[in-house]
Amino acid sequence: MTSMTVSRLLSGTIKLVLNRSTICLFDVDGTVTDPRQPIDPSVRLYLIDKLKKKSLIGLVSGSDISKIDEQLGGPEHTAQFDYVFSENGLVAFKNGTELKRQTIVDYLGEEKLQTFINFALNYMSKIQLPVKRGNFVEFRTGMINISPVGRSCSKIERDGFEEYDKIHNIRKKFIESIKENLPDIGLTYSIGGQISFDCFPIGWDKRFCLRYIEDEFKGNIHFFGDKTFVGGNDHEIFNDPRVIGHTVINPRDTIMQLNNLFNK
């Protein structure tokens, strides 16, 4: 941690204990839940019943709202967060009510969209993996999610692909091939979760959500995420100058860091 990061963190802490003009934003997978697993009720209770008394709370995820609802235990629990930014904020909610939505179709147009999808399907047809299942291309409102193993895989197969990918860099090589073959498609890419990577228009990473809160919470936006490394889907927002970033390793670590931050 650099001295600048420490000073920013300390100044943020002082403001945190004085008022609720602060917001804590959380990635979902690997941060408040284990990857693609339901949230531990104790974690949800901590965020909603304890943390919310000291700070506004929000979620920002590449997943669509239905997947967030599933992991949080249902829409009634998701709605208890002050802000929810699904698909990086392309579909944004405040106090359970939709604020705004933007679509990748409107941005790219059908021709570019099909060029990209056709390339991705052709590339995956040539990859040999330990297993392949279904749902390789998932179309979302503001992005496309690509999974070489297929999102229909089981938990054991998901874990197996993650380990295989660490050795063979399947997702990283896939992204490099897209960049080489479709340099002008207008998309950028980030690896998130265990089995997939997100593809979205340049500038539509998790920083997109900041437009809804940057004025109200200027200097007091804390972000917690597990994939803050280069290429991870938390990297851009973690390093944004409008944000005080915190790298976590799992939900337990998230709560530990929150306790340290708010109890100083």
From TrEMBL:
GO MF: metal ion binding; phosphomannomutase activity
Catalytic activity of the protein: alpha-D-mannose 1-phosphate = D-mannose 6-phosphate
GO BP terms in the entry: GDP-mannose biosynthetic process; mannose metabolic process; protein N-linked glycosylation
Signal sequence residues: none
Top enzyme class: isomerase
Binding site for Mg(2+): D27, D29, D226, F238, D240
Pfam families: PMM (PF03332)
Main location: cytoplasm
GO CC list: cytosol
Intracellular or extracellular location(s): Cytoplasm
Superkingdom of origin organism: Eukaryota
EC number: 5.4.2.8
Homology family: Belongs to the eukaryotic PMM family.
Quaternary context: Homodimer.
Function: Involved in the synthesis of the GDP-mannose and dolichol-phosphate-mannose required for a number of critical mannosyl transfer reactions.
NCBIfam families attached to this UniProt entry: HAD-SF-IIB
Protein name from the UniProt record: Phosphomannomutase
Species of the source: Aphis gossypii
